[in-house]
Amino acid sequence: MTDILAGYFQHTPVAGILLGLALVVFGVVGVRLSVVDFRSHLLPNRIVLPAYPLAGVLLGSAALWASDAGRALTMVGGAAVLWLAYFLLRVVYPAGMGFGDVKLAGWLGLYLGFVGWGQLLWATFAAFGLGALWGLVLILSRRGTLKSAIPFGPFMIAGAALVLAVPSVG
């Protein structure tokens, strides 16, 4: 995302500012949701749902302002695909994932779709890898078992943040 941000600032500062604001929203909402999820194992609608239009408007406006309508389309597609993938995981194994994670996936999909399909895939792998690593740490430290519930939202956010921080290839 950093390379896209730089390109947008070069092309038109307004698009760069809009994209920068979208990243600030990602950071603020992501940190808030991570803290809440670690404490309560919940991702509240009052935080997740308003983040959708805020991110959608900022990212979409940045793309359109920079005459990059393709990004606006993949942004919407990314949100739909990631929401659906997590929804299917929820249907297959309801005890393993809450519906808050499904809603969060759609919001993260806006950002990840904006940067590209490969990044969406890598962020998903990173989320599951980070979550598994955390579970392993809990088991090895004897603070958890294979049956322990862990909040997955922070790992979804961290995986997306890692991918967004890496410049795109190609």
UniProtKB/TrEMBL annotation:
Its EC number is 3.4.23.43. The chain crosses the membrane at residues 12-35, 47-66, 72-89, 120-140, 152-169. It is an enzyme of class 3 (hydrolase). GO terms for molecular function: aspartic-type endopeptidase activity. Keywords: Hydrolase, Membrane, Transmembrane, Transmembrane helix. It holds the Pfam family Peptidase_A24. Signal peptide: none annotated. Belongs to the peptidase A24 family. This is Prepilin peptidase. It comes from Arthrobacter flavus.
